[in-house]
Amino acid sequence: MENLKHKHREGKMVVLENGELKIKSTELVDIINDFRKVESETTNSKYVELRHNDFMTKIRKELEVLKLLGIEGERNFSQSTYINSQNKVQPCFELNRDGMLQMLNSESALVRYKTIEYINKLEEQVKGQALNTSELSPELQMFNQMFKAMANNELETKEAKRIALTADSKAEEAKEEIQAIRDVVAINSTNWRKDTSTLISKIALKLGGYENINLLREESYKILEERGRTRLSVKLTNKRRRMADEGVCKSKRDKLNKLDVIGEDSRLLEIYLAVVKDMAIKYGV
Question: Is 75 helix (H, G, I), strand (E, B) or coil?
Fold first, then answer.
């Protein structure tokens, strides 16, 4: 392994950020390829180079799969950049130890073992380069402690502010959720047309825009028909015929809609209100 050390000691290969190991995807790919070569020479097998673009694709797929599973994966992989051989800025990822272990999972046992061993040694070297202040004069040691205390105090203050802002934000979200629940529960047969229309509009907006209103109304009618074992279109046609028999003008008959049919039947109205409430809960309004 000695013949590999000179390659990665140049520049900043492994860094400690707030005590956490960080490594760029470009550098990790170099290390993996070095040990793939070692494995190839040791086992007389074919050497297959890992390209950085392919490695980036693997990381993105890993993040996509984790997202689909509802797992937060971004903590282990952060967006970064590097300067390529043409002196151009290119995208890469910065991985912490957990991210590195995730991506090494598809490598052979030898490559995994050697890479982890190698990075552990580099991490120890970085930690060993920490400034030793014990040889400073008492005055400088005192100032050093003062600056550390001031820095810690500032960090604690910022963290306290961040926590306070987060708490305020969560409290506001909770208020909005409570109000939304109240709005849903408050729907009754008195102002039901306005209240259900408002809720459906809120759902449509959450789904992307008011153009979804008609689709949501049709969904509510379909669920109502299933629960109430009825056909609103038939009821609407029958109502228009009755009005025609009663001599009501065509323009007035044409203005009738399914809501008019629902409003005439207390059983259907009760079911419809429950349907809209359920939809509001389903879509998180």
Answer: helix
